[in-house]
Amino acid sequence: MSKQPIEITSVSDWNTTLRAAKASGQTVIVDFHALWCGPCKQIAPIYASFAAQYPFTRFLRVDVDGQDTKPIAAKYQISAMPTFLVFKPNPSDPNAKIGEVVETLKGADPQGLRRIIAAHASHAYAPKGGLPAAEAEEAKKKGNAAFAEGRYKDAVQEYTKAIELAPKSGVLYANRALAYIKLIQSQDTPLEERKSLRPKAVQDAQRATDLEERWGKAWVRMAEALLLTTDEEAMSDIEESRRAEGRKLGLQGAEEALENAIRLSEGKVEAEAQKMLEDVHKLLATT
């Protein structure tokens, strides 16, 4: 993903970018422009601002007069500049080519550009909502209710039931990881139990990222779980000579998880991950 338009310089570059967009289920919006075109220059900053607003949409630019990009403009019969084309994958037909145009806009029309982007832009990946078994869905609902009421042990029990029925749900593992994290953070949880829950939280967060590697929130859970392995309580059972290195490794793992979360998220989740990453950087600087 890029927060700036990608300059396409060749047919090979074009094909590679479209294939990557199709693989990730992303919309592609293309600005066909020319260096001599005044309206193209006027709308270029606006187009770039939209690219920054919609990081999960691929914004491309193609110079219609470029020696290695002319064939692209010719293929799509570009005759007016600028021309904006929208390519969108067809979720009901995985074999469909992403090179099929779903909308065209001719001319430097900021409002028209805003309209087509709002209509077709891709957003951050989110896991599918439902679970395959009604019993699993019911257990998840009970777990969510218990969690909302601060009954984290009950939440763990319900999420565990749901996981047994739907073991491929990354959401359930992420939910149980968060319940473990809340128990670890609670002084009402006995010390030895808090210590035993740390690896469980990490394991569940790892499972969530394995199952839903494109889900930013799962990576936030991973970071939260790893950070709890670096606090004084977690380090108390480790030889003092090895604590600094162990803490550093845990912080570096959290740093990597948060970088993934930021890359894959938007809005509140992205902001939360960014704040956490700033705090991790401060901790690493003193480790």
Number of helices: 12
Strand content: 5-15%
Radius of gyration: 24 Å
Number of strands: 5
Strand order of the largest sheet: 1-3-2-4-5
Coarse morphology: elongated
Q: What is the end-to-end distance?
A: 32 Å
- Class derived from helix and strand content: alpha/beta
Helix content: 55-70%
Main sheet makeup: 5 strands, mixed
Low-confidence stretches: none
Overall pLDDT metric:
93
The SSE string, one letter per element, is EHEHEHEEHHHHHHHHH
Can you tell me about this structure?
- The chain has helices at residues 11-23, 38-53, 70-75, 110-120, 134-148, 152-165, 170-185, 191-211, 216-228, 232-235, 240-264, 267-285, and strands at 6-8, 28-33, 58-63, 83-87, 101-106.
- The longest helix has 25 residues, at 240-264.
- The protein has 287 residues and is α/β, with parallel strands linked by helices.
- Strands 1-3-2-4-5 form a five-stranded mixed sheet, with helices on both faces.
- The two termini are 32 Å apart.
- The chain has twelve helices and five strands.
- This is DnaJ (Hsp40), subfamily C, member 8.
What is this structure's SSE topology?
Blueprint: E1 6-8, H1 11-23, E2 28-33, H2 38-53, E3 58-63, H3 70-75, E4 83-87, E5 101-106, H4 110-120, H5 134-148, H6 152-165, H7 170-185, H8 191-211, H9 216-228, H10 232-235, H11 240-264, H12 267-285
Parallel strand pairs: 1-3, 2-3
Antiparallel strand pairs: 2-4, 4-5
